Amino acid sequence: MAIEYFRAGVKFLLHSARFSTIIAMPDVLVEAAGLVKRYPPRDRHGTAFTAVDGIDFVLRRGESFGFLGPNGAGKSSTMRMIACVSPPTSGTLRVLGMDPLTQGREIRARLGVVPQDDALDRDLTVLENLLIYGRYFGLPKATIATRSARLLEFAQLAERGGERVDALSGGMRRRLTIARSLINEPEILLLDEPTTGLDPQARHVLWDRLFRLKQQGVSLILTTHYMDEAEQLCDRLVVMDKGHIVAQGSPAELIAAHSTKEVLELRFEIGEQDKAVAKLRDATIRDRLEELPDRVLWYTAEGEAALAVVHQIGLRPATAMVRRASLEDVFLALTGRTLVD
Amino acid sequence: MATADAMALRAFQYWILRYRRTWRGTVVISIANPLLFLVAIGVGLGRLVGPDAAALGGVDYLAFFAPGILAAAAMQNGIIEAAFPVAVNRGPGGAYPVAAGTPLEPEDILHGHLLFMASRVVLSAAVFVAVMVAFGAARSPLVLLTLPAAALTAMAFALPSAAWAVTLTDIRPVNGIFKWVVMPLYLFSGTFFAVEQLPAVVRPIVYATPLWHGVDLCRSLSLGTVSWPLALVHIGYLTCLCGLGYLMARRLYRRHLHA
């Protein structure tokens, strides 16, 4: 039963992906060169703000692409430019081979957008929300009805069509927003912080749905400041900081290039950290040490061996943990700061 | 691609769909409220004023007051229909950014919403005019023309309100408009009493306010005392406000929805 719905979903969502395999050529979805977004001052006393400061990237069909960075890095501004709701200040941007400045309508007709704040109409029912969104794309009511049924099944909201959005939980609303964004069978799905504010269980359900879409060939472009999310969903990432791209590649490539394989995390008693770090620096000349307010990170190929050294030089950390390096470490290495401050 | 008109209709459909859920609440403020004024003041107070008060140009108070409150209610409805929904829907979580992510352009979103605002103010004014006629407050068949006159008055306030509200990041200033703009205009634009009863020095100020033009237009049509050259001045004044408001709204919708 579930498999059948899944197949139906694949069939109707993915004509675009099949198309691209038939013609078998690398298909560039989004291309940016020297892209800049500068906002004018809010008032006479304000100053202009450069949110995106000359970035270049290329996104290909079928690929899941993530913009990773802390708040204010320029991720959302970049997304808004791709979504054709924010004209670039300078540089070039092509989306689906078209120019957002002159062909915004045509581009947006082929995009799906999942905003961070859901922006569902809470006074309307689940189905009415899908209906009105489908009408914005000029779809006939019958088409919207057929697609809505399938999409609600996909979003695990099949029983909820007649309920007011007010009655749904946060996770359900987010899934409904994703269902809504698929009503026009988009080739690219733009997701701004898709799981921010959701509890862990709701996040996993959502990741599962997004992973299915990806399997079905929808190109996902998402912003996130969660490392685990980026690792789960993205084939390729750009790391942004203060309007610049500081690194790009697959999660594994980024970790290989900017971090060691393992990380030893050490926590010391209050007031002990400075002395411990001094001792460690004497002992570990070749490895990188990172001091955070609450812990020390030792970047090493062999975490257990490093821990042995810690004990050897007579340090007694309150806790010690060896873990695999993650994108968080990449971000720390690139910017000297953690992602969620 | 569909034409811009078709795009605007798509945006209009959203407001209609919403209205099917929310119309009950709007009846009280936009229809019942002015009708209560008509009965309480037009009929009740009118008895005290008595017939043929000279200052009213020789008509009874109800016939004098009804077209005045029609225009004043149109102004209020125009601002209510524009300022609040635009200020609420322009920001995150509102209907505008959602529509802006689809093939609709900011102008389509504006046009669709304006069409809905116009439908609302016409509907409210039509109910009011019908009741006015039923109460015997009309003196001329030209009273039928008070409907477009009231609608024009309403839009002369709605369009600039929409242009202003789309720039707001906070809804609170809208309440200020009711205190500082709507109330004084409502009371002193010749709605409740003739402008000639005011001291000569303040009269030019009243003549400059848009509501007075709406009131005088509606009243002269309802009483059948219309002077067409003056009516053209009223219509021209209100149309200019609509035009300016529209041009501002077009620019500001694009600036704020495609920031």
From TrEMBL, chain A:
The keyword Transport applies. Its main location: membrane. It is a peripheral membrane protein. The lineage of its organism: Bacteria, Bacillati, Actinomycetota, Actinomycetes, Micromonosporales. This is Lipooligosaccharide transport system ATP-binding protein. Residues 30-267 form the ABC transporter domain. It comes from Asanoa hainanensis. One of its GO terms (cellular component) is plasma membrane. Belongs to the ABC transporter superfamily. The keyword Nucleotide-binding applies. PANTHER family: ABC TRANSPORTER ATP-BINDING PROTEIN, ABC TRANSPORTER ATP-BINDING PROTEIN NATA.
From TrEMBL, chain B:
One of its GO terms (molecular function) is ABC-type transporter activity. Keywords: Antibiotic resistance, Cell membrane, Membrane, Transmembrane, Transmembrane helix, Transport. It is a multi-pass membrane protein. InterPro entries: ABC2_TM (IPR013525), ABC2_TM_bact-type (IPR047817), ABC_2_transport (IPR000412), Nod_factor_ABC_transporter (IPR051784). It is found in: Cell membrane; Membrane. Residues 25-256 form the ABC transmembrane type-2 domain. The chain crosses the membrane at residues 27-49, 61-80, 114-136, 142-165, 226-249. It comes from the Bacteria. One of its GO terms (biological process) is response to antibiotic. One of its GO terms (cellular component) is ATP-binding cassette (ABC) transporter complex. PANTHER family: NODULATION PROTEIN J (PTHR43229:SF2). Belongs to the ABC-2 integral membrane protein family. This is Transport permease protein.
